[in-house]
């Protein structure tokens, strides 16, 4: 019979040719923490995006410069925009436009207006200088035009106020203050605009108030408040009321005994309000005032001592400009959190204490609502936040508040009950490391112990062990039906029990330890959708400082995690529980510039490396066995070796590498710690072999010259310091990201540079490119080069001939054009390295992570011709200069993973699979199978039908066997 070849090929062509990931696995094996950063009190608010609808959204511009809208009912992100620049530490401002579907943000030198509902940009402008404050101008009641925006800038020591048109963001007028005063804030009541600046003086500042005409932007008045004794920095000014009927400016005297208040625009007016102490001296004073022009001019002064807090409510009489105390809120233990909420003229204050939530009106001390606080204390105490008070009917009020806790969570409290919890402290991760879950069973150890004892006691021990194992038998038997069913029915392969940390047979259940810039450490369960297992504070970071983590080391056998920071601090945690075992505060040890996990006669440990790349002396028993590569303080890199003395071992510099004049080293990468090589050669189509150059002691160094726009890459032997390979590129944009990675016998890097016209049909141009180079022992197949098959070799004396140069690898390179910049590169890791590695690239402009298969990046792809039969057998196909970032390559699918700093990978027990974890602002994790999941059945595999088929076959055999037998017997009888 002839095979229907045409039909067969048609069938095959219909099948999809490649799968990046099985579609049924997307969104089930991967997880994503969509984070914003910690909300700041002055840029967080509830706002109604649609005028006619009651529903509000919660808006924030976080400490990481992420602008986001959150659904206050569910705690889910509605939209996000990453606004922070490269530095990422600028202070941002965010204001709602009352009655409009707009929020306005300002950060760095940009001011943008956003569609409050959908998050689309309405307009955006970039100005000279840095934004210092932002306000929305109220229009006269009834006016229909879009509200204008006031943006205060500081540029080269001068302050500039710009009034921007509400519909376009264009400048209506500009006011420049020629003096060198430091601009602080801008404030407005419909009649005037006030600029508050710090007026320079020795030892302190006076406050200068400049009043402007809103229409023309001309100065109408200016006066100076003498505050030299009390105000020493911008932080000493407590509040400049924004956009209210009677904006005020307030500060405290140095001893925190009196609050001084000036009504903006009233030159001679200075009122002093006494601050009342409760339980010891006051440590902090805060002011809360409404932000609406139509709200009553009331404000609240919140004071707290180290153990308790209390508050006073004041009313401003607009006619006489006097300030009167209306009532007091009693002293209560704890720090407390107070937030303001205004509804037309009414102003409500919501007070959160350790055990209850109280609503009061600013008009009188009557309590409008009181709810017991039901909130788990493991998120910490409530620090500050925003509230929304709603009047249900004449006497009932409801309140919901979004508050930041001392555990750096963002929580919603609805009438005292906990709603959603967003782990915003997890954002801003600066370092992460994989951790194995410690094995509960120590069977291996027990077996080893039995092997080393005498036969009789080993036998007794073994019988005892089996007897004690019997206690698990009932549980095992009980569990059998479930195990049987779960192995037949389709469903999740690993069904993790929440709250239980156990290893699984596939090696998917692992922890990731994450350290954040705010000094917190998290344990994340990668096998359970990235849930947070524990979190702990390592070191409280002072305001404006970020934790500079230099190394995390997880000691799997002991179950501990050590973290070292730049200021010599170090902390050790229990990997599974997060308990702090040991800690050394910053400054107690010398500064650390980097760390390395080293192997010594006493075991592995995390070696801190000090300034100028000097690790200092270590005890001989702890001396690292391997060579180290460190960065010197003059931009060079050095090779170090420890020379053992009697007691201590000294680091000795064995070589120094300095790039050419004008170049600076931007990156040094080495092969991953776990980088197994399954095959030492590459088999070609004609069954000959190219032997891989597999030197474990190499690093890839990237250096750039900003002046000449060049980038050079060097492969350096870390033992001898010899340069094994180097290449240089011209026309490089050194401000664009340059990423590189080194593994097995190949390395890859990407940059923006001139495209050489050598590649097929490509004109000379510029673009983002990725370069891939493979290193072989020789360019001739079946040749092992100068080293031959020697079992050992030395980098220092490569051959018997004296003064011979090093054995240089043969390097095959190819370049490809890519559509976008790669900000970070890493490579998958599998258990034995049999699976082809995949290049993992972070595309910051698209908020995506992609995995590029190695076959696409093969330098041996034939250029300008179709592959020969032998090449086809080898698996290479025709070279195409462009690599498209096909949606199939995108590991993050539709998810927007923002601010990725680094992607770390780890092998699973299954050879096919590598675990991947990305961190930065967001957290993202997934599993990748670069050569397809060849050792595990996909979720779509129908086990039931397999069992059904087997059963049907069995039934068929049972029924047919006697019939066949009978037929055979009958046949014999009839023929003979
Ligand atoms: C931001 O960081 C830069 C350098 O990292 C520093 O010079 C600057 O003062 C920082 N700005 C703020 C507002 O913290
Ligand atoms: C870590 O904590 C777990 C659970 O509390 C405990 O069983 C284990 O012994 C601890 N490990 C260390 C090294 O302290
Ligand atoms: C290297 O191998 C040779 C034999 O092939 C042996 O004599 C020599 O001692 C080895 N050197 C080292 C450092 O192991």
UniProtKB/TrEMBL annotation:
<feature type="transmembrane region" description="Helical">
    <location>
        <begin position="944"/>
        <end position="964"/>
    </location>
</feature>
<keyword id="KW-0256">Endoplasmic reticulum</keyword>
<dbReference type="InterPro" id="IPR026895">
    <property type="entry name" value="EMC1"/>
</dbReference>
<keyword id="KW-0812">Transmembrane</keyword>
<dbReference type="InterPro" id="IPR058545">
    <property type="entry name" value="Beta-prop_EMC1_1st"/>
</dbReference>
<feature type="domain" description="EMC1 first beta-propeller">
    <location>
        <begin position="20"/>
        <end position="424"/>
    </location>
</feature>
<feature type="signal peptide">
    <location>
        <begin position="1"/>
        <end position="20"/>
    </location>
</feature>
<comment type="subunit">
    <text>Component of the ER membrane protein complex (EMC).</text>
</comment>
<keyword id="KW-0472">Membrane</keyword>
<comment type="similarity">
    <text>Belongs to the EMC1 family.</text>
</comment>
<keyword id="KW-0325">Glycoprotein</keyword>
<keyword id="KW-0732">Signal</keyword>
<dbReference type="Pfam" id="PF07774">
    <property type="entry name" value="EMC1_C"/>
</dbReference>
<dbReference type="GO" id="GO:0034975">
    <property type="term" value="P:protein folding in endoplasmic reticulum"/>
</dbReference>
<dbReference type="Pfam" id="PF25293">
    <property type="entry name" value="Beta-prop_EMC1_N"/>
</dbReference>
<dbReference type="GO" id="GO:0072546">
    <property type="term" value="C:EMC complex"/>
</dbReference>
<dbReference type="InterPro" id="IPR011678">
    <property type="entry name" value="EMC1_C"/>
</dbReference>
<feature type="domain" description="ER membrane protein complex subunit 1 C-terminal">
    <location>
        <begin position="743"/>
        <end position="973"/>
    </location>
</feature>
<dbReference type="InterPro" id="IPR011047">
    <property type="entry name" value="Quinoprotein_ADH-like_sf"/>
</dbReference>
<protein>
    <recommendedName>
        <fullName>ER membrane protein complex subunit 1</fullName>
    </recommendedName>
</protein>
<keyword id="KW-1133">Transmembrane helix</keyword>
